[in-house]
Design a protein that fits this description.
This protein has eight helices and seven strands, in the order βαβαβαβαβαβαααβ. The protein has 256 residues and is α/β, with parallel strands linked by helices. Helix 1 crosses helix 8, helix 3 packs parallel to helix 4 and helix 4 runs parallel beside helix 5. The model has no long low-confidence stretch (mean pLDDT 97). It binds NADP nicotinamide-adenine-dinucleotide phosphate (NAP).
Length: 256
């Protein structure tokens, strides 16, 4: 059974790899034996995260810079990964952010920036890394979506929710398109996870208590909660699972 989740022959790339969720995922994949590339736009935070994980796990973690909104930058990243590690087997898209604004005041340039990173960026990385996977008839792609892809709210999240719904549909469409090539494309949908990304909103008075009323499990999510589902989807245990979104949400989507 343990071997089903063994990633020791695999090369994984994690976008947003120095972020709260991305770094936990990178650590989890490395703990299963994968060689892991972490990527984002900031080499300093990547190097720091890579060093921390490598020291902790005695693992091979390679920090490489790329901007997921830029096709040439991602194509160059793919080339570097293949040159340095020989191939790529696993892609986890854990980049992204939120711009909160009420609809009547939503600055359209910010809407565009949000879609560029969360949607276009996901499509570009899937396309560029997917090319290698389709060619070799093996690959596991896991997109970090959100419960917000299926659950609307009235708090100025129209842009973010729309980007995550788009990520969900990219996931399903690519799963269908690449199933004949044995490339699995799935997503995880976390609920609110305590990271830098959510720090500000958690500080609003009463916010956490209000949120917890919708979480049957009775606590907020942690970055480590997301790791098990991603490791599963990145492993051969998920051979026949594709086009799915696994919610890591303490039951939030189960109740409404
Ligand atoms: N935290 C939550 O509650 C939560 C819940 C559900 C889903 N999610 C999703 O989980 C993912 C990660 O969130 P997080 O909480 O870990 O946020 P985070 O700590 O802010 O990490 C986000 C990462 O995305 C990278 N990034 C942003 N734009 C980029 C670009 N154009 N090119 C390359 N990298 C880029 C950032 O790095 P640089 O700025 O250095 O490039 C950063 O490392 C996001 O997709 C988010 O929507 C989060």
């Amino acid at each position: 059974m343990g071997a089903m989740f063994d990633l020791s022959q695999r090369v994984a790339v994690v976008t947003g790899g120095a972020g709260g969720i991305g770094s936990a995922i990178a650590r989890g994949l490395a703990a299963q034996g994968a060689k892991v590339v972490i990527t984002s736009r900031n080499i300093e935070s990547l190097k720091k995260t890579a060093e921390e994980i490598a020291t902790e796990l005695d693992a091979e973690i390679l920090p490489l810079v790329a901007d997921v909104t830029n096709e040439a930058s991602v194509a160059a990243l793919v080339q570097q990964v293949v040159k340095q590690l020989g191939t790529v087997d696993i892609l986890v898209n854990a980049h992204g952010f939120n711009v909160k604004a009420m609809a009547l005041d939503f600055p359209i340039n910010e809407w565009q920036r949000l879609f560029d990173a969360n949607v276009k960026g996901t499509m570009i990385t899937c396309k560029e890394f997917g090319r290698v996977m389709v060619e070799k008839r093996y690959g596991k792609i896991v997109n970090v979506s959100s419960v917000r892809g299926v659950r609307a709210n009235a708090g100025g999240n129209s842009g973010y929710c729309a980007t995550k719904a788009a990520v969900d549909m990219i996931t399903r469409c690519l799963a269908a398109e690449w199933a004949p090539y044995k490339v699995n494309v799935n997503a995880v949908g976390p609920a609110l996870i305590a990271t830098k990304f959510t720090e500000k909103q958690m500080q609003e008075p009463g916010r956490t208590e209000k949120y917890l009323r919708n979480i049957p499990w009775g606590r907020l999510g942690l970055a480590n909660d997301v790791v098990g589902a991603v490791v599963f989807l990145a492993s051969d245990a998920a051979e026949f699972v594709t086009g799915q979104i696994i919610y890591v949400d303490g039951g939030l989507t189960a109740i409404g």
